[in-house]
Design a protein that fits this description.
Number of domains: 1
Number of strands: 16
Shape: globular
Oligomer: single chain
Largest sheet: 16 strands, antiparallel
Number of helices: 2
Structural class: mainly beta
Length: 292
């Protein structure tokens, strides 16, 4: 549920093309939820949304990369210890999500901030975060993500090794990339100080990975199965490769990602169910065998 304060006031800064799919997604109850699965409830969407002019581009002085902007990064100014309040990736923490998507079976997703790091091709050492999706216990997608934080507090997305599975076997590795290899460049996952209208690239590998982000709101009340969270950040993710793709994400201070609403094609909703402690080896296995 999205409280009126956040989307009633802060959506005043957005165009109609931003506002209506967000409200639609927030009130959506996806079809295809199996018995016993928790279906997100979002019946109290904002009753009033005033629309104003589109905000200007990222505020001056943010220096966040966009598009194919080249970046020169000093590995000495980066850390694998992620402390950004919108996603503090304390090693050994696990976030559990439930995803429902129209026309597909529900997924259970485990995201683990592992105890391991990786030195990447660009010289930066990143935190390894494991993201594994399962349907009825069977892995459907398994991803190893790499994140690092700069001295200002921006969280950078440094790449991923990903695979989709069908019948227990790898069906695709599309979308894998690593900063510093084959022209791939890192982007911003979360700005240090999010401001409405701020835009940035999230990843860049020409023709393969060209996702972008924009800050839409910074003071939302969001309710999920895991609880109620105030002062949540709302971002919109788009792609220069998949031009119809639009996903809204919600992050709570001190918690991390709460909710993801995909409004392109078949609607999907992924919400936080709980946060717990992972074992020291959890998420450290090879692709397809995340351990456990």
């Amino acid at each position: 549920m999205l409280a009126e304060k956040g989307l009633g006031e802060e959506l005043t800064m957005m165009e109609l093309r931003h506002a209506w799919p967000l409200v639609l997604a927030a009130t959506l109850i996806c079809a295809g939820c199996s018995g016993g699965a928790s279906t997100p409830s979002a019946t109290n969407a904002p009753s009033q949304i005033r629309l104003a002019a589109k905000p200007e581009a990222s505020p001056t002085g943010t220096n966040l990369p966009t598009g194919a902007d080249p970046v020169t990064l000093d590995p000495a100014s980066f850390s694998a210890n992620i402390t950004n309040p919108y996603w503090p990736m304390k090693p050994g923490t696990r976030w559990i999500y439930h995803n429902v998507e129209e026309g597909n079976p529900p997924q259970d997703i485990a995201v683990v901030a592992t105890t391991t790091t990786k030195k990447l091709a660009n010289g930066i050492t990143a935190r390894v975060v494991r993201d594994t999706a399962r349907v009825k216990g069977q892995i459907t997608e398994d991803t190893i993500d790499w994140y690092a934080q700069d001295a200002d507090g921006n969280v950078w997305y440094m790449g991923e090794q990903t695979a989709e599975f069908e019948n227990g076997k790898i069906a695709s590795r599309a979308g894998s990339w690593e900063a510093g290899k084959n022209g791939a460049m890192p982007g911003i996952l979360l700005p240090a100080e999010p401001q409405i209208g701020q835009k940035y690239r999230q990843e860049y590998k020409k023709g393969e990975a060209e996702d972008n982000g924009e800050v839409l709101a910074t003071n939302n009340l969001v309710e999920t199965t895991a609880g109620s969270y105030k002062k949540s950040l709302v971002t919109m993710d788009t792609s220069a490769v998949e031009t119809t793709a639009v996903e809204y994400k919600f992050y709570a201070p001190g918690v991390g990602p709460l909710l993801a609403l995909d409004t392109s094609g078949g609607a999907a909703r992924e919400e936080l169910v709980k946060i717990d402690k992972a074992g020291p080896k959890d998420g450290t296995g090879p692709i397809g065998k995340p351990n456990p």
